[in-house]
């Protein structure tokens, strides 16, 4: 909105020409989202506490978590409002990719809100039934992929990290593959959100990584130099990824140990879905395995734990997801969180290195 209002004056006042630069608008999207989170956070937390929307703690979980019972949740609404506001202010709203990403954020946010509402407001402990949650996530992802493939004539070729001349064309198989990427990312972030700041920090790291990826993917000179797919208009998504980074920083002020608020499914599901959508739009689907390496590890720990217990009646980990395993081994919660953040940063740096190492 500000971009369209202020850039219109660039012919008469050269200063306003700065608004056409994605890097400038991304920087201010970061600051805007951060300030919004920081400003509305305390009031939102008080409102959630007054509404008695508090976290329910699993009885079979780590004993240290019992003290978290009643902590306000559904704080992900703060992140969503900050990202949406910053994106609408600073992004070029003529880009179909911008609206597609905002749709992803809002639609997955609605699914997460419905789940949290049933659990914490209506006191239905199970929330949305898993099958319904998965079906709605799949439907949203299918709409996104369908628009990309049908309306925007999107390529079905893949870009593989470390390989510059290998671009397999999946043709129609790409459609379910892309849906799997988006839904998988959404649920992987959701599984990671189990400790104070554990999901927020790595999402912020992934947002920075994809801010860079979206910018170079949408810049023909950089894309040609790095031998990565060029996607015309994808650079505008850097503004929204920057907004996500700023919103996560602002939310982390309240979500860091000991947390004053949890994001809930209304936060974790759309943040993961957004990362998956960005990966698909920029044609860096496999890069998400590195950018979100921590989320992959958390999801795999759950899959392996369930498979092992069903097949052998034995557990691989003391408890899944993986962060609970280390808690039960005696690691203090802040130590688990910080070490997992370190893993997320290392994985993000490795992912960015693949842009050149081809």
Structural write-up:
The protein has 14 helices and no strands. The chain has helices at residues 2-7, 22-50, 76-90, 96-121, 130-151, 174-192, 200-217, 220-226, 237-255, 265-281, 288-291, 293-312, 322-328, 333-353. It starts with a helix and ends in a 5-residue tail after the last helix. Helix content is 64%, strand content 0%. The protein has 358 residues and is mainly alpha-helical. It has one domain.
Question: How many H/I helices?
Answer: 14
How many beta-strand runs? 0
Largest sheet: none
Please give the share of residues in helix. 55-70%
Number of domains: 1
List the helices and strands and how they pair.
Blueprint: H1 2-7, H2 22-50, H3 76-90, H4 96-121, H5 130-151, H6 174-192, H7 200-217, H8 220-226, H9 237-255, H10 265-281, H11 288-291, H12 293-312, H13 322-328, H14 333-353
Helix pairs in contact: 2-3, 2-9, 3-4, 3-9, 3-10, 4-5, 4-10, 5-6, 5-10, 6-10, 6-12, 7-9, 7-10, 7-14
List keywords for this structure.
358 residues, mainly alpha, globular
Short description:
By secondary structure, this protein is mainly alpha-helical.
